Automatic annotation (TrEMBL):
Source organism per UniProt: Natribacillus halophilus
Superkingdom of origin organism: Bacteria
Keyword ATP-binding among UniProt keywords: yes
EC nos: 2.5.1.17
GO biological process: cobalamin biosynthetic process
Official protein name in the record: Corrinoid adenosyltransferase
Residue ranges of the TM segments: none
């Protein structure tokens, strides 16, 4: 079997139940998910090389699988298809976010992305996840054959990367850098 098929040589690609132009909003969203997945793989490698944190690394691996699930749901145009992304996946992300958030210092102002290399990689994932979210939100405005849990999952995923990045800096003893012109945007009683 050949790795290449030539099926996309005329600017179209095959989805589940249809062929679409490679510049179609659904294909953009799929490509954005794939790009995020690559950045998550790089962040996972960094986490393992610096911390040897196997728990966070296993979470990142699970996220990579779930990004493929998001892609599968986005690629499905068949009515009545069974979705792969579930509200349970969102709830699990929320538990991970809460865990990392509780382990990081209080935050009152916007912070600059960065600090340690591991946190920087996780912040890149956060920013790319926000772009994926924008691509999917645009798709939701034009099409109705979509799993609503995908947009919620991606929204929560960017929060996960933010919390994980702050946790990474805290564990390495690297302070987050406050955006110097930020007002206080997070009330003292709320740590996030």
């Amino acid at each position: 079997m050949s790795l290449y098929t030539g099926g996309g040589d005329r600017g179209k690609t095959t989805l589940i139940g249809s062929r679409r132009a490679k510049h179609d909003p659904r294909v953009y969203a799929l490509g954005s998910c794939d790009e995020l997945n690559s950045f998550v793989g790089r962040a996972r490698a960094q986490v393992l090389s610096v911390f040897e944190w196997h728990i966070m690394a296993s979470e990142l691996t699970m996220i990579q699988h779930e990004l493929y699930d998001c892609g599968s749901d986005l690629a499905t145009l068949k009515r009545g298809a069974e979705w792969k992304v579930t509200p349970h996946m969102v709830s699990r992300l929320e538990a991970w976010i809460d865990h990392y958030h509780e382990q990081a210092p209080e935050i009152r102002r916007f912070i600059l992305p960065g600090g340690s290399v591991a946190a920087s990689e996780l912040h890149i994932c956060r920013a790319v996840a926000r772009r994926v979210e924008r691509d999917i939100a645009a798709l939701y405005e034009s099409e109705d054959q979509l799993n609503p849990a995908v947009l919620t999952y991606i929204n929560r995923l960017s929060d996960y990367f933010f919390a994980a990045a702050r946790f990474a800096n805290a564990q390495l003893g690297v302070d987050d850098v406050n955006y110097e012109r930020s007002a206080i945007v997070f009330p003292a009683k709320d740590r996030y």
